[in-house]
């Protein structure tokens, strides 16, 4: 993608050599695990209603992201480290992080800073990944990620119009949205429409449980 060519060239000049020990599949599973731990931990802190819950969740994510970035930079193949999909995720995650920092500083509304921003980043990231994969000659995988992105946009819409329905288990729904597409990509050979259905069903089930229990 031409938009990233300049950034990619600069990163290639300064990045350390990779060991190459991490395969693309292991990279995806590592990302899924980080998402499950991060959003699951964030949900637990929300339920506990700790006075410093937002700060603790931020610290948790700093540790997880730091570890994941280090793993990627030092051990992922160059085809992953400098891919258009990786640079796209860097763009949307940086934007979401800026909004979260704004929330911590009380200049961005909490719902936008801590939930909507990250659902939006995940949805856009998966749509972008799907487009990149389709353009790279992997249409089946691409459609799977595009479907996950559509599920994310639906979740974002529900949260925008009826956040009280989402709030009880909103971060668990985000965990399912984050991890599900990567696990399905690595561990199954399901068609794209079935992957989309599985991710959508998982997100919906989490939300329904939250509404019932609440």
Please provide a written account of the structure.
The protein has one domain. 82% of the residues lie in helices and 0% in strands. The chain contains 10 helices and no strands. The radius of gyration is 17 Å and the shape is globular.
Number of helices: 10
Global geometry: globular
Helix percent reads: over 70%
**Average pLDDT reading:** 94
SSE pattern, N- to C-terminal: HHHHHHHHHH
- Report the sheet with the most strands, covering strand number, pairing sense and barrel closure: none
End-to-end separation in angstroms reads: 45 Å
Nearest-angstrom radius of gyration? 17 Å
Q: How much β-strand is present in the residues?
A: under 5%
Overall structural class, as computed from helix and strand content, comes to mainly alpha
Give the domain tally: 1
Identify low-pLDDT runs.
none
The number of distinct β-strands equals 0
Describe the SSE topology.
Blueprint: H1 5-14, H2 24-48, H3 53-75, H4 78-81, H5 84-104, H6 110-135, H7 139-161, H8 163-166, H9 170-187, H10 192-213
Helix pairs in contact: 2-3, 2-9, 5-6, 6-7, 6-9, 7-9, 7-10, 9-10
Transmembrane segments: 27-48, 54-74, 86-107, 113-133, 145-172, 192-213
Keywords: Membrane, Transmembrane, Transmembrane helix
